[in-house]
Amino acid sequence: MNFRAVRAIYVFEMSRTARTLLQSIVSPVLSISLYFIVFGAAIGSRIPQIEGVSYGAFLVPGLIMLMLLTQSVANASFGIYFPRFTGTIYEILSAPVSAFEIVLGYVGAAATKSLVLGLIILATAGLFVPLRIDHPLWMVAFLLLTAVTFSLLGFIIGIWADGFEKLQVIPMLVITPLTFLGGSFYSIDILPPFWRTVTLFNPVVYLVSGFRWSFYGISDVGVGLSLAMTLLFLALCLAVVWWIFRTGYRLKN
Amino acid sequence: MSVISVANLSKTYAGGFRALKDISLDIRRGEIFALLGPNGAGKTTLISIICGIVNPSAGRVTVDGHDVVADYRAARSTIGLVPQELTTDAFETVWATVAFSRGLFGKPANPAHIEKVLRDLSLWEKKDSMLRTLSGGMKRRVLIAKALSHEPRVLFLDEPTAGVDVELRKDMWNVVRALRDSGVTIILTTHYIEEAEQMADRVGVINRGEIVLVEEKAELMRKLGRKQLTVLLQKPLDTIPDSLAAHRLTLAAEGMALIYNYDTRGERTGITALLGDLNAAGIRFRDLHTTQSSLEDIFVGLVSER
């Protein structure tokens, strides 16, 4: 195991974040705070409680998840796409580094950034709404699993993309709609039966539901199912990354 | 003893382009090997496969006895690569990017070695500068510094002096010679034939994905070198006399010079006979000189033959 290489990639990626604090940390925290102010404090005060939880507090896990998904994908996809775009990827590919070590460096850094952001937003949320975390260990576990899984997805997108537009296509056209329609802002129980069934095909439902359960003990689907679906998605992403390195797709051909 | 062994290597890209066709090549330990070839000949593909950047379609490559696919860690650990393109990060400092390269190759931090590399390449004053503020020549030096950061035993220089000024080129040659003297094997691709002529121990020519020739540079120049004899006349000639037709002379300098081409590979150069015939024809000359084909002439000759 080439730990020094993993550390080199990880530190390189983290220092990129440190150089772009406004974009990496301040901007997502500000936009999520706006959600809290508008939907939590302003509109939320006129919405009744959901299963004994105020609407503002109900929003917190969904909004953290929204940020976690978009930022994990954005960070990881940009992290690997940019060296491909500039050509500096030659150094990574010609170094005595395994595929696992490369992924560990890039995905580890992207997931770390998302985790830090998630915790900052959690702290920020505490300023606007009354927070309660019933299962803190599970909360951290869901946070970690989601950050890693979607950073892996971002890594895949960063390899697949052959232009900056493609880099944005999946986050903008797939992940954001799925997150908005995945119960981030509402309980899917309020949907008519048909649309509720349709919604169950949205993987984000399981992430948000499990994460919200760790806060308030309420969920749209069983927590075991949430965990299983998250792990399934993680396994799927790992399989695709394995295939990418095995075939050299968009990297070595 | 060879440090790099390439056996029956082929590469066909996804679009169907055959960049390498069954190439076999051995690079000796400690030599400077110049790989010459026109654009698109397969130089960069060959280097990229050896370094692990491109997957081969068929064949096998070993570096220091290690297979570049099966035992890639050991193989790549010995290799430093300076790519053709000026590919650097924009916002890193010189020091950070060189230290990053060393870490990537699994070596412990060694500020003293990095300082030496930066000083040797006249980069020390720029160590805290961001890469985007550097000139093209300076970026080229940074790429060399990155390749040397992990103390490689084999160094690939893919067109290292493309677009750099004469002074910098000479600096780099000095660095390359010093590396060779310390036992590092150097493989150089270049468009500057002068570079191969001055630096290389052996020369390989690649064209359309095939190795056309591998030869000791001196031997290559001796074997393939054509020479030209210029005879400067005392009085101008309007035409070449029929008695000299067999020598296939050409008239130059407004009739004041005769040009004679001969091949050093031939048993006879024909010079003695030419001078005798000139004397017999009553043509007097005031001076004569010879010029030898450069490696470039040889290279152009080889590539255009195919």
Features:
heterodimer; A: 253 residues; mainly alpha; globular; B: 306 residues; alpha/beta; Rossmann fold; Alpha-Beta Plaits; 10 helices; 33% helix; elongated
Query: What proportion of the residues of chain A form beta strands (DSSP E)?
Result: under 5%
Q: What global shape of chain A is seen? A: globular
Nearest-integer average pLDDT of chain A: 88
Distance between the termini of chain A: 25 Å
Q: Which regions of chain B contain 5 or more consecutive residues with pLDDT less than 50?
A: none
Helical percentage of chain B: 25-40%
Largest sheet of chain A: none
Beta-strand residue fraction of chain B: 25-35%
The ordered H/E elements of chain B are: EEEHEEHEHHHEHEHEEHEEEHEH
Greatest interface by residues involved: A-B, 27 and 33 residues
Plain-language structure description:
The complex is a heterodimer of chains A (253) and B (306). Chain A is an all-alpha fold and 253 residues long. Chain A has one domain (3-247). Chain A contains 10 helices and no strands. The longest helix of chain A is centred in the first third of the chain and has 32 residues, at 55-86. Chain A is globular, with a radius of gyration of 19 Å. Chain A starts with a helix and ends in a 6-residue tail after the last helix. Chain B is α/β, with parallel strands linked by helices. Chain B folds into 2 domains: 2-222, Rossmann fold (3-Layer(aba) Sandwich), CATH 3.40.50.300; 226-305, Alpha-Beta Plaits (2-Layer Sandwich), CATH 3.30.70. Chain B is built from 10 helices and 14 strands. In chain B, the strands form 3 sheets. In chain B, strands 6-7-8-3-9-10 form a 6-stranded mixed β-sheet, sandwiched between helices. A 4-stranded antiparallel β-sheet of chain B has the order 2-1-4-5. In chain B, strand 9 (202-207) and strand 10 (210-216) form a beta hairpin. The longest helix of chain B has 16 residues, at 166-181. The two termini of chain B are 31 Å apart. The relative contact order of chain B is 0.14. Chains A and B meet through helix 1 and helix 4 of A and helix 2 and helix 3 of B.
